[in-house]
Specification:
By secondary structure, this protein is α/β, with parallel strands linked by helices. The chain has 18 helices and 8 strands. An 8-stranded mixed sheet has the order 1-2-4-3-5-6-7-8, with helices on both faces. Strand 3, helix 4 and strand 4 form a beta-alpha-beta unit. The longest helix has 23 residues. The termini are far apart.
């Protein structure tokens, strides 16, 4: 069979691109090819990017009053409000400044954030780290909506925090350039912040790097919400109670081995996998599912409490940690998936302010599609992600490649942020900002 010359030419271009990609993949030696294992375990210490000699970093805690006025003082006390906390690491001389935005449910001082802080500080940058807008203290002290996950509104809140932080530090340091980055949800947040900055021009970022961002936010949370149901479908012999009992028995032993000196949170589950209590690799996705479940519960619970929406806490009640019902209310939030939060809280809130918008409209407006022109036409914006990232859906990698061209760095494996500390990945991040 003979093919038209145009078809042959097209196939040759595709094959050439595939061959180049395959060659690049062959030289990529990150060792974990199971995306769930990579997501949880991360990068083996001996394969992390190393600085010789390493510099000591001692970041300063930066407290910023964003003017939050909460009617429920007891609720505010739970999170130590009204100040929002950041970390600030300064160089002695002139240097670029980079903002680092945490991923879903993560704080300004979570392990991945601290890794990025150390990385960019070692590279000679001033660094300021910011909690995810989905972290309860950020929600209560800096959110204008108390409804995180709406990336356009979250960007407004992050931008305000960044401007106040800049005002606090600019007198103490000399800034040569300004950058912003973030991982996971913080990755898409960084892009929306960068886009907002092109309109406001109040910070004037020189470069923006998204690390493992969602493309379609709804797809990403659907993937994460579906992990535990999919696991149980593969293991019909195991009840939900048995599944949780096994993980929490391992956690209890992990806490005991560490003398109780472990602060529980979603990332604690990932630390578990690096201990003697690790789950078999075949079951490791359970930790991701449970971690996201707790992040979703925190988000739904806090949003409901702040907005008095009545879905979890009765609308005529004010949350108090000393209330006899407080543990019951929080247990109710553990039955909420992120998609429940989106359908029951976010959509009505949005449609009240944007009459006529459908669910599909909202999904489009909080995903990367909403700022496609900015991503396509701005050479200072880049993305680094993985072919097997568990939060991406069909066509997402191709979308990033088509929209961003050679500013899309796609690694063959590494799961979701699992290879962020790997030597090649760190080298790419530094090269992106330095050139």
């Amino acid at each position: 069979m003979r093919y038209p010359q145009t078809v042959v030419a097209t196939l040759l271009v595709i094959l050439a691109g595939w061959t180049a990609s395959a060659s690049a993949y062959d030289s990529y030696d990150y060792p974990l090819t199971n995306p769930f294992e990579a997501t949880v375990v991360g990068t083996p210490p001996d394969l992390e990017y190393k600085w010789e000699p390493p510099m000591e970093v001692t970041p300063k805690l930066l407290k910023i009053d964003m003017g939050a006025k909460l009617s429920d003082i007891q609720f505010a006390g739970v999170f130590g409000l009204e100040d929002i906390k950041l970390l600030f690491a300064r160089q002695d001389g002139p240097a670029p400044l980079i903002f680092v935005i945490a991923g879903t449910g993560a704080a300004y001082n979570s392990p991945k954030v601290l890794f990025l802080l150390n990385t960019f500080y070692q590279a000679g940058y001033h660094v300021i780290t910011i909690s995810s807008p989905t972290k309860p203290p950020f929600m209560a002290s800096a959110s204008s909506t108390n409804m995180p996950g709406l990336t356009n509104y979250d960007a407004e809140d992050l931008y305000r925090v960044m401007k106040v932080a800049l005002e606090r530090v600019e007198g103490d340091i000399e800034i040569t350039k300004k950058y912003v980055t973030g991982y996971s949800l913080g990755g898409i947040d960084s892009a929306f912040v960068g886009y907002l900055d092109t309109q406001r021009k109040e910070i004037n970022f020189d470069k923006v790097l998204m690390i493992n961002p969602p493309v379609n936010l709804y797809t990403s949370v659907s993937n994460l919400d579906g992990i535990i149901p999919a696991y149980r479908k593969k293991h019909p012999e195991m009840t939900g109670a048995e599944l949780f009992a096994d993980v929490f028995a391992r956690l209890a032993a992990f806490f005991k081995e560490n003398g109780g000196r472990v602060k529980f949170g979603p990332e604690t589950l990932y630390d578990l996998q690096k201990s003697d209590q690790a789950l078999p690799v075949s079951d490791v996705e359970v930790l991701i599912g449970i971690s996201f479940l707790f992040s979703s519960a925190d988000l739904a619970f806090t949003s409901d409490a702040l907005n008095h929406s009545g879905w979890i806490i009765p609308a005529d009640e004010n949350y108090s940690p000393t209330s006899s019902q407080s543990s019951y209310w929080y247990k109710r939030s553990l039955r909420w998936r992120f998609l429940d939060y989106f359908d029951k809280m976010v959509i009505p809130w949005w449609q009240e302010r944007h009459p006529g918008d459908t669910k599909e409209d909202i999904i489009q407006k909080v995903s990367l599609y909403a700022i496609e022109g900015y991503l396509r036409n701005n050479p200072s914006v880049g993305v680094m992600t993985n072919q097997d990232d568990i939060i991406l859906g069909p066509g997402d990698i191709e979308y990033l490649q088509e929209v961003m061209g050679d500013r899309a760095k796609i690694y063959p494996y590494g799961g979701h942020c699992g290879n962020m500390e790997y030597t090649d990945n760190v080298a790419y991040m530094l090269d992106f900002f330095n050139n």
